[in-house]
Design goal:
It is an enzyme of class 3 (hydrolase). By secondary structure, the chain is an alpha/beta fold. It has one domain: Metalloproteases ("zincins"), catalytic domain (Collagenase (Catalytic Domain)). It is built from five helices and four strands, in the order E-H-E-H-E-E-H-H-H.
Length: 157
């Protein structure tokens, strides 16, 4: 059996919020390690609003703006090799819009980090389709964000 080594592929096609690929890899590694998840690959794409809205339309037949889209690929625990947990598509501009700030404050990076954590949780079968599931997911997000802060693993420029 091959030894699993996590590869995080990062594509940054947006210009609103500079994001270091290494910080993305660290965040994903810390979250998955904390949750005890073993996988070979995770793909993370940072997109402009227009591109994310187009993808939203293609995948969900809904052209509205969104902050993140998650496409799970291999279920956690599946024996496929390479095991691809999924793809996260994120609009950092959505974080600026949500926070109503154009500057690149720590809050913006924390919010974009939240979007990536949210996407990773969706890859792990967490759902936010009911108020109770949404609450449980938010609690887990907040816990993971605290861990990321403690380990200096939030996204950064």
């Amino acid at each position: 059996m091959k030894k699993r080594s996590l590869k995080v592929y990062v594509s940054n096609k947006q210009k609103s919020v500079p994001i270091r690929a290494q910080s993305v890899k660290k965040l994903v590694s810390v979250v998955l390690e904390h949750l005890g998840v073993v996988t070979d690959q995770v793909f993370v794409y940072f997109l402009e609003d227009k591109a994310l809205a187009q993808l939203h339309d293609q995948v969900f037949s809904d052209p509205s703006l969104t902050d993140t889209i998650t496409l799970p690929i291999d279920p956690p625990g599946a024996s496929s090799y390479p095991h691809v947990l999924g793809e996260a598509f994120i609009s950092p501009k959505a974080a600026q819009r949500f926070l109503r700030c154009e500057d690149l404050s720590e809050q913006v990076y924390e919010e974009v980090s939240r979007y990536l954590v949210h996407s990773l949780l969706h890859m792990l079968n967490y759902e936010d389709t009911t108020p109770e599931k949404k609450r449980k997911m938010r609690v887990k997000e907040n816990l993971l964000l605290c861990i990321l802060k403690e380990e200096c693993a939030l996204l950064s420029a």
